[in-house]
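Q: Here's a chain of 231 amino acids. Please give me its 3D structure as tokens.
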Amino acid sequence: MKGAAALLMFWLYGTGALAAPAVDLPGLGSDSHRSVVDVNTAPWKILGRVQMSLGGRCTGFAVAPTVMVTAAHCLWLSATRHYIQPADVHVLMGYLLGQYRLHAHVTHFVIAPGYDPENEGGTASDDRATLVLDRKVIAPADLVPYGVAQTGAAAMLVGYPQDRPEVPYGDIACQINGLAVNGLIHHDCAATRGDSGGPLLARQPDGEWGIVGIDVLATPERGGFAAPLPH
């Protein structure tokens, strides 16, 4: 196992998959502290790469055996001013370096009613899409429960960022900064483009991790905002 891990890290660095952080990307800042996570262990079994046939990609996470959640803006095609067709959206569970545990097709998706892709900033708290899949992608026992975002709570945010699209990469040592008046959850986790749709996890009062939001916006420096989950 040690030899395999060393070989993996050599491959990652050698191909540039773990090159120096792209500090010009929003949400990272100069003090980004991200790492690769194991998508075959809890709580990251819920993580999937949301892949578009047209070439785009985002992050998503399972909330039920056949249901994923991602950011609604990931599915909007600005060139046509329409959402992408469900048949052109795929989910790759446990994606790592071109390999994945499961592949599922999206049969249909539902955009949160309050989200307007042409007023993204003003409706970001509803930037949420629910994807219905053609097969089960996770066992019920591997799901992560919803939680409550409390200021100062330890947090984690992992996805498939623009500068590391081939690996599940993120910040596992950050925190919840507070709640904005529009309901968005402010965090200081290093996350950028491509992480959109990823789950923001927060430590709960009982010590367990819970999903508290969906990554939707990055700040100029390290951190960003997550849309709250539906009640």
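Q: Can you summarize the key feature?
A: DSSP finds one helix and 15 strands in the chain.
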